Known about the structure:
single chain, mainly alpha
Amino acid sequence: MISLAESRLRLLGLVEGWSFLLLLFIAMPLKYGFGMPEAVRIVGSIHGGLFVLYVLAVLLLTFVQRWRIMRVILALVASIVPFGPFLLDKRLQREADLQVQERAQAGLWFSSL
């Protein structure tokens, strides 16, 4: 089962990931291809704020759920790689699904005693 803090991180990661893609593939071409620097200024500011919130959410989970250092590094690296937050989201969802399955199987095993 996913904790509230982890579900917030996943949502924030997806929003931050989309803002990064908008910055890379829309705002930067507008700036350098069409001379519209305000696109990077606006999208970049939004992305920067979301990035800071994402890092804070990762740090919160580090202490609340006692994430191991490699998991923290993975989450932070995912935020600076295009499409990284989407891959991390898939991984976190897969891990949560496995936890649910394990708990369900454990419940079935105990109920058969």
